[in-house]
């Protein structure tokens, strides 16, 4: 509490989502002073902003939760297999209260500028409340999917009715009863919200640019038995998620490729996972992300399901994805998405064939057709992974900005630091498994690594740590090389920055797997932070 008014902190953390909260908790444990700045009025990050109808995590609740506190994981009762957004936000608030985090978090405040003072090895941080503080370290816990992007659609500002973005949903309840609602975008957010909105609205018009693959969630209430099973098995489940799972999720690891099985056997396996529901559909086989022919078998299975579910053949055809390998855009997890198009009050509009020409005061016009609407929902996604960082004016050595440095795409060493920006850490940054993993597993790993690094620096009287250019270049090359051995770069995905006009096309996350990645990070630390340059603190002068 004392440090609240001080102008200097050991660490400034940007963002009070799951990354910022755990970082703060660890810093406290190390006896370091910290201030967290959060632009929202509460904790939770992406779960604070994404309040759209039907919002859920696509990782199961019992796994999408912190593991750092035994008590926490035993006392919190998740109600459903996939927690709805309000419950995840409640959990974030519970964590903030339980660990007394709020007293070091300043809400409603953006970090606008951070400049490194090379002479003093200090960051000067300016915030939106007009104040300035200094800190030895800055940690960017700014999140990967929290920077909602408003699309450049002509006339959008002229629309008379309300316009909502799924990623920036109002705090008050939105009632669509009796309204004609247009939803633009069919990624996870569109796919989760359309069925819920369709139950309430008079009519829903879905504007689809790219048809997406989606797997049923099979959401259900969690039973006491299920919760107990998880709790009893948590040590192994968490260990597996950290060390063995590619994506930080406890599941069976496939030992066969899709083409190793005959047609019937393969179909039966896909069917079993389809019935089970959720993300593990993509780990039926070990080569779905690697081999086009293998991938086709999974894609065809899902295509057949869509045709089975959707009654109108023309609509079914439009909803059938064809332009990219399954899984290379993030797979969607839905509840009744495809079946929703059997409702009489839901219409699908193909804006690939007939792009939106403009929005008028009362309609969206595409292909010369006016679709009359009372409200618009933009489910158009995020400037992912780098968008929130890019909004901050970050200046490292020689006044170079991070945006200048990342103009051709983000460059990091291990996703943790960028050369030329000493004492600046990123949590789940580009170049780390991040969005290809269970985010909480990756967050905990980064926060623990950074915490250990700070202890090392303290014990060894190190004033500044910085990624070396050479190590960074090698890491960037490695990240690219691993990605290009997969089918992922084939899709126009937000992983590739392809959803933002003008954004460099680079596969941003590290696809080598959370287990191997953790090992690499641990090895680097064990070798005295290999690839990082350390500046010694000046020895105290003798008097
Ligand atoms: P996504 O996955 O980026 O989806 C955005 C959707 O909006 C997608 O269907 C886009 O079509 C569409 N889109 C984007 N811009 C436009 C414009 N200008 N006009 C028409 N349609 C557009 O975002 P989500 O919020 O659904 O999900 C993001 C992640 O959050 C998700 O993967 C989970 O990890 C959680 P496109 O496919 O680009 O043709």
UniProtKB/TrEMBL annotation:
Record's keyword terms, sorted: FAD, Flavoprotein, Monooxygenase, NADP, Oxidoreductase
Gene3D superfamilies, alphabetized: FAD/NAD(P)-binding domain
Cofactor(s) it depends on: FAD
Domain of life: Bacteria
Annotated transmembrane regions: none
Coiled coil: none
UniProt entry tagged with the keyword Flavoprotein: yes
Keyword NADP listed: yes
InterPro entries referenced in this protein's UniProt entry, alphabetically: FAD-binding_Monooxygenases, FAD/NAD-bd_sf
Family to which this protein belongs: Belongs to the FAD-binding monooxygenase family.
Protein name per UniProt: NAD(P)/FAD-dependent oxidoreductase
